[in-house]
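Support case: user asked for a sample of complex input and structure output to validate their parser. Sending the pair below.
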Amino acid sequence: MPDASFDEQACLQQIAQGDEAAAHELLQQFRPFVLRLVRSHLPRRVSEEDLAQMIFIKVFQNLDKYSGKVPLAHWISRIAVNTCLNELRAEKRRPEWRLSDFDEETSTAIEQVARTEADLGSPADARLAKDILHQLLAQLPPEDRLLITLLHLEERSVQEIHQLTGWNPSAIKVRAFRARAKMKKMLNNNPKLAPIFTS
Amino acid sequence: MNTEEFLQRLFSFVRRLPPEEIPGTPYGWETRIVAHWRETIARRKAAAGLLRGLRWAALMACAIALLAGTMASDELAAFRSRNDPEARIADSALVAGYGYE
């Protein structure tokens, strides 16, 4: 989020008058915010700077349409989420998860995370959990991936997700339920993991 | 442990990870965006200028048509009065005088 000292309205007015310094100021203030959004919604990070650039180009192109009814950060985050979603849709979805996709290393990691008490997890366990989660999320359609990230990792409310994506609140709940069911199925369908999840 | 509990544990672990550091701005990154923005403004201004020109041309064309109509009003009135009874009598007198019949 931008600094507390950042005067949003003044900056926007200056930009409307064509002030380049104000445009640079806006970019500096919102770049970390947009990059964090991009990182959490784009698993393949090869082009996070390019994607952030694409988002800011859209922001500047549509800045005259910004009415000021919602905070600027909210408006920018909606553009960012939609741009990420379009990029995720463009990514080819991997074929169905196969048994061989869970290699020995991942299976061991899953075992370790399952054994560790939630309160006692070390940073290493958290990194393992992140890798496993990314593997699971990579198998989901972009919308499901985005939804799980927003709902369970960023802990946003259904209403917030509705505002960000424009999706219907009840559709969000149904989609989230189905996305979690798909993830559970991926775990359940692996015979190597059967002892963990049946015990 | 069931898979639901496992997923909740995964989410909880990942949420606890500190946010990753944001790298410094790459060279020319801001300049590219600002240049693109300036280009968009210039393109919009050119389009707006063209539209304004077209609007003026349309207004001028209307004004000229109106002026020409006003100037030709006498001729139009004369043309319209050809079918008046007086004009018809005069016409027939002329025609008779020249011996066309």
